[in-house]
What we know:
Shape: globular
Number of helices: 13
Mean pLDDT: 97
Number of strands: 8
Largest sheet: 3 strands, antiparallel
Strand order of the largest sheet: 1-8-7
Strand content: 5-15%
Low-confidence stretches: none
CATH topology: Glycosyltransferase
Bound molecules: glycine
Radius of gyration: 19 Å
CATH architecture: Alpha/alpha barrel
Amino acid sequence: MDKIQHDYSEPLAMLVEKGERMLLQIGHKSPHAAKADGIYDDMRLDWWTAGFWPGILWILYDVTGKEQFKEAAWSWDEKLESKMMQANNFHHDVGFQFLPTAVIKHKLTADSDALRRGLFAANFLAGRYNIAGRFLRAWNQDKRGWSIVDSTMNLSLLFWAAEASDDPRFTHIAKAHADTVVERFIREDGSVCHIVSFDPETGEYLGAIGGQGAGPDSAWSRGAAWALYGMANAYRYTGDGKYLRASQRVAHFFLANLPSDDVPHWDFRASESLNGEPRDSSAGACAASGLLELATLLPDNEGSIYLRAAERILMSLHHNYATWHLPTHEAILLQATGHRPAGENVDVSLIYGDYFFVEAIAKLNGWNNRIF
Ligand code: GLY
């Protein structure tokens, strides 16, 4: 990666201080969204976001060595495993849940139970693969032929499991799904659709569905962030240049459509002018961390464009969207959007935005125990 030109120790120090306060404020909650009152909710453990708060704690532990972060993070993978043994609604997002809990715990502490839990989750994810359509199934209930761009990020669990168990089956499945993302989700112009529907029996492509984006032909910005980052990871694990080019194509679309303050609207095609459309700071944070990944995968002269773009997004989040001035606020970033078409969690704080901001700032300070 090209040289990082600035000193990012100040935002990292602010995050560590903030994290110490969040420890007291959040306690045993499983935070997902915080509305205007600044109080994080307490979601059920099989909700897709359950890994992000412990993920923040593990990263803060890794960069500071402070035991309080490790102690608070320690039991999360066990809690998720317990939930998996009961009636539950786990699905394609077990990567988001087990990478920042079991996998990072094993990476940092060599805990053998954490390894077992990570592999258990990877087997669960692999079991969702539809051979006829070459995709990982999204959600449960009646959506048997649906796949979503978010799962591009969950592929890291499969790639990790292939290495951890020395079993290439996980890589075969991850690559097959990644190929489907390249063929069916990422358009020629680098924009991305959220949901693709296949016939679950024959695997036939049926069409795109808007989902959390404005419509089937729109450009949901967090979906773009998932694709940009997930494709960069697929390239890192496989060395296959088609994933690198896919990540770059999405990155170019993403960067070309950013507003003047570098933090995206929730959908780049939400409306003609985008005036008054809500932002999604979580898409900005996730994309920035993915851009840093891209920068590490390319020679300096090519990677620096992504590094500089990531720095711009992160500094805008740091200066314009963070809660530094609101000490009682339990979240880190403001102005995230969860599901605009459903009217859910618009202009709130979202724990995954906080996670990817912490992850990206840690990377700018040399942290490299990456799990995605
Ligand atoms: N994975 C669901 C979302 O991005 O909102």
